[in-house]
Amino acid sequence: YVPKNEIWIDTRNYKEDHAFVLAHELLVRQLMAKGWDYHSAHDFAVAEEKHHRRQAGVAHFITG
């Protein structure tokens, strides 16, 4: 259970990943607010997250 106006980040993630994970979760929420279903919003956010990680030179991507 995550309250409506909160985003939780798993502390087991690398600290270097937190910004990417937060951006991913915020994008999912924004897209769902526009009427997207969760799975479509999540898939789109994963693609965006991968793109931004590549631009930042981050070689790994952890899915969970």
3D architecture notes:
The protein is an all-alpha fold. The protein has two helices and no strands. The chain has helices at 18-33, 38-55. α1 (18-33) runs antiparallel to α2 (38-55). The longest helix is centred in the C-terminal third of the chain and has 18 residues, at 38-55. It is flat and about 30 Å long. The mean pLDDT is 87.
Task: Walk me through the topology.
Blueprint: H1 18-33, H2 38-55
Helix pairs in contact: 1-2
Characteristics of this structure?
mainly alpha; 64 residues; 0% strand; single chain
Rg over CA atoms: 12 Å
Supply the helix-strand structural class. mainly alpha
Number of helices: 2
Q: How would you state the average pLDDT, rounded?
A: 87
Can you tell me the residue ranges where pLDDT is under 50 for at least 5 consecutive residues?
none
Task: Give a short synopsis of this structure.
With 64 residues, this protein is mainly α. The protein has helices spanning 18-33, 38-55. It has two helices and no strands.
